[in-house]
Design a protein that fits this description.
Helices cover 63% and strands 0% of the residues. It has helices at 12-21, 24-33, 43-60, 69-87, 93-113, 119-125, 130-141, 173-191, 195-206, 211-218, 222-246. Residues 1-8, 151-157, 164-178 and 248-255 have low confidence and may be disordered.
Length: 255
């Protein structure tokens, strides 16, 4: 006998109200993600996937958790768009391998140098010239996976870097402690980025400027902003992953 979801879903009329009152998020998210997905994915594709995510969020929303629906819905909508990208088979094995190569080079260099590596050093470690390395960064950036919204772990539903910035009003004390620790570690790692990388992260995630707007502010090409964004996020993910795995700098790690 199918008992359905383990939580008490909201009423049908409440689902409709949630969807209608948050429809504006579809167009907003579409514009935000258009630079994070491959060029063949149209705005209509993104909007359609976002709508699927919004409906799914309304169906799964559990008010008793104390999480704002907007926060819950945005994560579901982004996930739906990235699921569509993967379904369209753009998230290929070769591109995963390229991302893994960059992450490994960053990790190896940071261990040797004791600091985040410069792009010239990463390119040299990969035995590539700077132009080819930047081209690889450009390819990876259009996966839509290089984002603060990407899972820190190699899973779809794992915690994201953005979770440590957003306040989801979690009622779980342990979760709040862990979130605070990750926030502190993320802030520390952001400070270790280059000045341009920090500016891109700040303008994109905190000021919510588009990559085109950031390019105008910094007087760089939009492609260069995309490369800096990708490189910064790969550095952050690599550093955070390492501290989570090794307990380096973790407030609760054994001393």
């Amino acid at each position: 006998m199918n008992l359905g979801p383990v939580y008490a879903p909201v009423r049908a009329d409440e689902k409709d109200r949630l969807i209608k009152s948050h429809l504006h998020m579809v167009s907003f998210l579409t514009e935000r993600m258009v630079s994070q997905v491959p060029a063949f994915m149209t705005r209509e594709d993104i909007a359609s996937a976002s709508m699927v995510g919004l409906v799914d969020a309304a169906n799964r929303f559990k008010p008793s958790l104390g999480v704002l629906f907007k926060t819950f819905a945005e994560k579901r909508m982004r996930g739906a768009v990235l699921d569509e990208v993967r379904r369209m088979d753009w998230f290929s094995r070769s591109l995963r391998q390229k991302q893994s190569r960059i992450c490994k080079a960053i990790s190896d260099l940071e261990k040797r140098l004791g600091r985040p590596p410069e792009e010239e050093e990463i390119a040299a470690d990969l035995e590539m010239n700077l132009e080819d390395y930047r081209l690889m960064l450009g390819e990876v950036s259009y996966l839509g996976c290089v984002s603060l919204h990407e899972s820190i772990e190699d899973t779809t539903d794992g915690p994201t870097l953005m979770d440590s910035i957003e306040d989801e009003n979690s009622p779980n004390p342990l979760a709040m402690i862990e979130n605070s620790q990750l926030t502190q570690e993320l802030a520390r790692q952001i400070e270790r980025l280059t000045e341009k990388e920090r500016l891109v992260i700040s303008l994109y995630y905190y000021e919510e400027l588009s990559q085109k707007e950031i390019a105008e502010v910094l007087e760089l090409s939009e492609g260069r902003i995309s490369q800096l964004h990708s490189q910064a996020l790969l550095k952050l993910k690599t550093s955070i992953n390492r501290t989570q795995t090794e307990g380096v700098g973790h407030p609760l790690s054994p001393r």
